[in-house]
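Field reference: "sequence" (input) and "structure" (output). Example, Protease Do-like 9:
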Amino acid sequence: MGKRGRKPKTPIPETLDSPTTTVASPPPPPITTAATGLDDAVFSVSNVEIIEQPQASHPHQEGRRRGRPKKLRKLTDNPEIMTPSRRVPRTVDNGEHKGSLGPAVAVSDPGAAWEGVARAVPAMDAVVKVFCVHTEPNFSLPWQRKRQYSSSSSGFVIGGRRVLTNAHSVEHYTQVKLKKRGSDTKYLATVLAIGTECDIAMLTVDDDEFWDGVSPVEFGDLPALQDSVTVVGYPIGGDTISVTSGVVSRIEILSYVHGSTELLGLQIDAAINSGNSGGPAFNDRGNCVGIAFQSLKHEDAENIGYVIPTPVIMHFIQDYEKNGAYTGFPILGVEWQKMENPDLRMSMGMKPDQKGVRIRRIDPTAPESQVLKPSDIILSFDGVNIANDGTVPFRHGERIGFSYLISQKYTGDNSVVKVLRNSEILSFDIKLASHKRLIPAHNKGRPPSYYIIAGFVFTAVSVPYLRSEYGKDYEFEAPVKLLDKMLHSLPQSPDEQLVVVSQVLVADINIGYEEIVNTQVLALNGKPVKNLKNLASMVEECEDEFLKFDLEYQQMVVLRTNTAKAATLDILATHCIPSAMSDDLKT
């Protein structure tokens, strides 16, 4: 993230959308599909050469076969050297033989030429196209929703009659349908779980016909650098399945744009376009090693795509299987500082052979706030020593941020954290929990809460609310005080919310207050406002003559209690608002 007030030079990865309807609403989240066990006989260069047997009457082409790509391009006018791999999508579409391959596969055994192609069909059959209708909440007018829009994307079949795709592909869904490759039928799908942080969703289909002849994909291990990967999906540019290939160029902790979290991710150089989201990435053995989910769009960058790796996918699946629902990724609720400066280490009482990171502050709502203290030095997590720069060993010759160790755990798991405090080494057994932010990054599909009195619309601030009010550049357009709280404030209690006056619906009773917008409410009649429900109950139960709201910037709003409550009904009727408060505040 760049410095406040100045746009960052580093481009931000974006999730990939593939909308199918032109509506005024923003484009829907992208989805892509994955194929199971794509065979290297189709995708690896060496095996393409085996399939591409040149005719015996042209022995001089033997050398050209292994030449550079531009040499091949000079010869594409000659139909005899057209590679079958280029023709496969056209001649074997939907698993049916639609035409002859011609001279390119004129080999002694016709079955041998088709052997590799035939093996790829079952793998492709596990790739499905996802059709979703979205109806997003209107965070600026929280009593209504935006106009619905449609998107198409991809998913792939895994064991247990389930389908995986991206969470942003089915966000705010009202209907999800799946279509198998080569089928003309769309099957209604049920959403089992949505993992917003890891950007994965799990679906199923009740119709038994959908599962006929479909083999689930097999998952592979985390790939190494320079391992080849093949991304399969339904990106823009056509209706049929698309295959792109590349190599793993980076493995590290990545920022997941949709979930506003940081988890392990793969960077690949295969083309990932809108609609590829949710599609699988296969290794050269045909095992799935990840799910395509976002790419980097920038004038200085080309072909930078990101893939959710197998450890994150398996964490999501096992979390669902263990708990019957998605519970999320735990975090250690601390902010820390690197200990690379020798004077800093000496002043903290660290010995030359000791390494670790210093705790700056602790989330008061996190379980570890009971045992850890600011300025403690975290030496190790679950027995793994942490370096002065906050990294831990990761495979051979690689290092990775120690948050990777925490993300491998499940919510409610216990971990042993070893700290240095006043030159004494202490060990604590800590129960890990998920993170609660003062301004949440997402509402997890729930409609926004609101409360209206005398035309004042009160709501709780969230990142989707800021995006609705100020657009995608909300980090530069929103009020500085709200941004400061979003980035740096910690909640003091689990149910604390930042409540603001979203807008004032103009009426006679609120004359002079019309220009108040997105200003925090601090107190009502001298009592601090903890959250929106707390504010609503205080107003409803107020028997004082006046309602006195203390706002940010030392502003004050005073309304006569009886007339304010009486005027509310007329204001609701004028603006066609069904209720003075959202359903979650009525309970």
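The first helix runs from residue 40 to 43.
The first strand starts at residue 14 and ends at 15.
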